[in-house]
Amino acid sequence: MLPEQEWTLVTEARAGDGRAFESLIEPLQRPLFAYIYRIVAHRQDAEDALQDVLVRTLESLPSFRREAKFKSWLFGIATHVCLDLLRARRRWRVQAQLEGEKESKASPEALEKLMEIMNAPDFVFEIREHIAFCFACVGRSLEPEEQAALMLREVLGFSNEESAKMLEVSEPVFRHRLSSARSRMTRDFEGLCRLVSKTGACWQCKALRDIAPEAHRGADLVQIEVAPGLAITAESLLDARIEIVRDADLENGRTAPLHSAFFVSMNRRENAVP
Q1: Which of 157, 151, 155 is nearest to 177 (CA)?
Q2: What is the CATH code for 1-89?
Q3: How far is Cα 233 from Cα 116, in angstroms, rounded to an integer?
Q4: Is the alpha carbon torsion for 52, 173, 186, 238 positive or negative?
Q5: Which among 36, 35, 60 has a CA at the least distance from the CA of 49?
Q6: Which of the residues 42, 66, 151, 229 has an alpha carbon 20 to 30 A from that of 139?
């Protein structure tokens, strides 16, 4: 059951108290935006979606029941806003980053923009933030419902029961979507990322770190490490990557300007693919 203090805020917000609504939302706004941003993979879309979520939340407060967790209820609204947006867009190709790399190498203007970002005084190429970027990018190649299932359960840590309720499906359906999402991500990273497979096609993170000005390079990372005692398998490597993704500050980190520019470019290109 919702704590008394939080329920009081809900009641006051229902009555039109704007400060009560802000008090409800403020502690959750940063993780809420992080979730939306990683799902839609475009900063302006994420900012617009966040505003839509806040409006829908305020409008839907009369339907909120005290036995629910406010965070789960709020993230459920956010999930459906994101799904509506993604269903109107094309899924990305798994190789979207490789196509972006080709585009940058072929365009003097793109390379100039890249170096301009990397030379900014506050810029640092943080490999863990780039891993979170890759995870979001490959996630956009999944079915939207599978992508949301993976984010809710594996990255945000909601239970199967909570996640199923947010997606408005039964737990067996949710578990199927989660299993499918994990299988696809495992397979795609195995064939794509050289940090998880010696035969992977992409080592963009190393290439970007190498071309960053020396003073703006973060720590190096030559391999994804699984938890002590675990065998190195495609599944354990995915779990190790998810652990990094949970902690990385993709939205506001020191590499964020670069990733934001990449997301804009990939959205434009992938939505234009016939």
Answers
A1: 151
A2: 1.10.1740.10
A3: 39
A4: positive
A5: 36
A6: 229
The packing angle between helices 256-272 and 96-106, to 10°, is 100
Range in 102-106, 138-142, 158-162, 252-256 the model is least confident about? 102-106
Q: Do residues 260 and 113 make contact, with C-beta atoms less than 8 angstroms apart?
A: no
Give the DSSP letter string of 17-47. -HHHHHHHHHHHHHHHHHHHHHHH--HHHHH
Surface-to-core class of residue 27, CB atoms within 10 Å of its CB (0-12 exposed, 13-18 middle, 19+ buried): exposed
**Residue 87 CB coordination number (10 Å):** 10
Tokens of 17: 């108290």
What sign does the dihedral 223-228-233-234 (CA atoms) show? negative
Q: Helix (H, G, I), strand (E, B), or coil: what is residue 193? A: strand
CA distance to 75, 143, 232, per residue, from 29 (Å):
10, 26, 36
Contacts of 198 by beta carbon, 8 Å cutoff, 6+ apart: none
In the chain, where are the structural domains located? Answer: 1-89, 91-274
Model confidence over 77-124: pLDDT tens digits? 999 999 999 999 999 999 998 888 888 888 888 889 999 999 999 999
Cα 110 to Cα 116: distance, rounded to the nearest angstrom = 10
Torsional sign, CA 128, 129, 130, 132: positive
